[in-house]
Amino acid sequence: MASLDDLKKRIASVKSTQKITKAMKMVAAAKLRRAQESAEKGRPYSEKMNNVILNLSNGISDKENAPKLLSGTGQEKTHLCVVMTSDRGLCGGFNSNIIKKAKSYFAKILDEGKELKIITVGSKGNDQLKRVYGDKIIENISFKESKNANYFDADKVGKMVIEKFEAGEFDVCTIFYNQFKNVITQIPQAQQIIPLNNEGEENNSEESYEFEPDEDEILSNLLPKNISTQIFKAMLENSASEQGSRMSAMDNATRNAGEMVDKLTIEYNRSRQAAITKELIEIISGAESL
Amino acid sequence: MSEEFKVEIVNPEKSFLVKDDVSEVVVPAFEGEMGILKDHISIISFLKPGIIKILSKSGDENYYVEDGIVEFKNNNLSILTSTIFNLADMDKSKQQDLLKQAEEEANKTDINDQSKYLADQKVEVLKTLN
Question: How many contacts (CB atoms, under 8 Å) link A and B?
Fold first, then answer.
């Protein structure tokens, strides 16, 4: 059994850990509210964008010559995966969930004999992936210096993806991120952004639009923007998820630390009591023998 | 019969502006300025750098945009843009900053015709503001 002094030290250290996790939880909760707000505020833009594109692609006259960003290159040989993770740790299963999802997708692609290229956004994802897929990672982006997800950063990623697409470096692009459902649940998502996957979405508006200039030109202008928008949406969802995940992880950690302190305190009291009893027995038996 | 319709400007971060007492909006569409009144036909177009003028009962407003898409449908005008500034809030130094950026962009040689055209537009519009 550990000595009284050791126990005391351990209790003190667990208590200070508890303080840290509690503080982190508070910070995450405050940040979560902000992140959630901006995720909600960002939704109208991407929804409207989607609507317009849906209307456009329905109205497009010449399906054969549709922009490649919409219809694809006609083959599926090279896959580009953009894996979006956080830059900081201590957020529970947040990063591992994305990585797990991404890895199973990677395995599938490699099994089919297709080529794989990876762009990681956020340093944690890069750390986890570079051990196994190090040679596949072509780019690693991190936005450590920017505090909140902003459109400017997303646009940078988007432009890079489009540049690579136009250079013919890949055929299909998928982004991986965590969708924020609530504080406890974040759902890792794989979303294909090139070619745009609009199947399954019903266009209920019968209205026909006037286009100026023509559909093709608008589409070819709009699609690159849509890529950035989708990435931005993913970044917003991700940052809300990260804070949510961190908050619940830190909440758990605080509770566990509390339990540990209780257990250690009981042990401490028991051994103190045992020591006292032992001393008493010694004194009494000493007195009796006289 | 009122001659008013609703306009909504959205940027990626948030819903920038919602107004429902607008009588006319002039947008810098790609092929020239376009005035939109109530009961305009449904239209989708995109913007070049320029000034959006919103005329309404509660006063006129001017916004500087660098890009965007307009969609008009059922007397709802949606403008999606990534860069927008209210001219009333824009001071000289901000203008100069934007102008400098645009000029730098316009002077690049390795860009394609379209981005060159857009950058030139930006410079032009910003200069007229001064």
Answer: 75
Of B15, B34, B45, the CB nearest to A44: B15
Least CA distance to A210: which residue of chain B?
A: B43
How far apart are alpha carbons A53 and A226 in whole angstroms?
Answer: 9
| Percent of chain A residues topping a pLDDT of 70 | 93
Task: Choose the closest CB to A222 out of B43, B69, B74.
Answer: B69
Q: Is A26 inside any structural domain?
A: no
- Domain holding A261: CATH number? 1.10.287.80
Question: Which residues of chain B neighbour A207 with C-beta distances below 8 Å?
Answer: 42, 73-74
DSSP B88: G
pLDDT in the model for residue A70: 76
Report the distance separating Cα A109 and Cα A104, nearest Å. Answer: 9
Among partner residues B15, B30, B44, which is closest to A41 by beta-carbon distance?
B15
pLDDT tens string B44-56: 888 888 889 999 8
A211 in contact with B at a CB cutoff of 8 Å?
Answer: yes
Indicate the angle between helix axes A151-166 and A215-288, nearest 10 degrees.
120
Q: Which residue has the higher pLDDT, A61 or A263?
A: A263
Handedness of CA A97, A98, A99, A102 (dihedral sign): positive
By C-alpha distance, which of B79, B73, B74 is closest to B27? Answer: B79
> Residues A137-145: what's their mean pLDDT?
85
Specify whether A233 is located in the same domain as A282.
no
Q: Are residues A168 and A147 in the same domain?
A: yes
